[in-house]
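FAQ

Q: What does a record look like?
A: Structure on top, sequence underneath. For example:
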């Protein structure tokens, strides 16, 4: 029996509230501790859901197939005017197709850095931008990271990501073709980036992200591969209107719902991770980027 099957759905629902900042860590653990399942406190289930980044790393910082470095670049109109990110290039001289990796609602944590390395190993120049860099960067834990991100002006944070995309597209190692992918908050940002960049974004893969506003969809020129979890009521409820707008404006898109999965299923640092679905979604992501960013 997998860890996901052992953990009660009510605890997963609590964790979803916690991840999206509707309750803090203390309340998450307290409410789980007060919940009795089969005569036992559910506190252990809540603790099992907290991320384990060291165990979840799939590609080392020192992997010979890539070179990673932290870079700083201008970000006019953003939180501070300057941004920082983790830039990972494949082995070789390039130029390479470029992909922006956009974090969740807690800054550039180790999982997202690992995703950037996965993209580089697949042949892409990857930039994982840290939206928290103007306020000191990812603080080393998701709780403080979530609070820091919540404290930022949303429009300025969006602008920092838009500027990150433009920096990456113009990078000397980029072939000039740009993709973007992100998770949760980053999935919503991928949709907003498609609106903001128009023809400057060639492909976007939002994972379980908030849909772009229907009135803004006419600005999208990127091809989109849209990933949903099977059980994710708030996000999935946005799909019918989003699809109608995409169709109305002739946007190239495909959508995949991964049945039997929960919001966050791609993140292998928590038990919401679904290995088979995550592997298939990532393989489709890489294939989609290869299709639209080559040349």
């Amino acid at each position: 029996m997998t860890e996901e099957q052992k953990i009660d759905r009510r605890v997963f629902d609590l964790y979803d509230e916690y991840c999206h900042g509707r309750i803090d860590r203390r309340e998450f653990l307290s409410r789980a501790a007060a919940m009795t399942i089969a005569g036992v406190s559910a506190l252990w289930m809540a603790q099992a859901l907290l991320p384990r980044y060291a165990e979840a790393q799939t590609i080392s910082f020192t992997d010979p197939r890539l070179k990673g470095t932290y870079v700083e670049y201008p970000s006019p109109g953003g939180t501070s005017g300057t941004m920082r990110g983790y830039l990972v290039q494949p082995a070789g001289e390039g130029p390479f197709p470029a992909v922006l990796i956009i974090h969740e609602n807690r800054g550039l944590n180790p999982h997202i850095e690992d995703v950037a390395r996965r993209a580089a190993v697949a042949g892409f120049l990857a930039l994982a931008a840290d939206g928290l860099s103007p306020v000191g960067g990812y603080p080393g834990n998701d709780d403080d990271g979530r609070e820091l991100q919540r404290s930022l002006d949303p429009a300025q944070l969006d602008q920092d990501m838009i500027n990150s995309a433009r920096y990456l597209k113009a990078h000397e190692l980029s072939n000039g073709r740009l993709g973007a992918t992100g998770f949760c908050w980053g999935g919503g940002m991928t949709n907003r980036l498609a609106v903001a960049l128009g023809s400057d974004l060639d492909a976007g893969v939002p994972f379980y992200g908030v849909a772009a506003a229907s009135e803004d969809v006419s600005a999208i020129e990127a091809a989109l591969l849209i990933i949903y979890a099977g059980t994710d009521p708030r996000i999935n409820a946005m799909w019918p209107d989003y699809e109608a707008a995409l169709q109305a404006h002739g946007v190239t898109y495909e959508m995949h719902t991964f049945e039997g999965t929960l919001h966050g299923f791609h993140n292998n640092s928590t038990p919401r991770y679904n290995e088979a679905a995550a592997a298939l979604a990532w393989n489709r992501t890489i294939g989609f980027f290869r299709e639209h960013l080559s040349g």
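Q: Is there anything notable about this one?
A: The chain has a mean pLDDT of 90.
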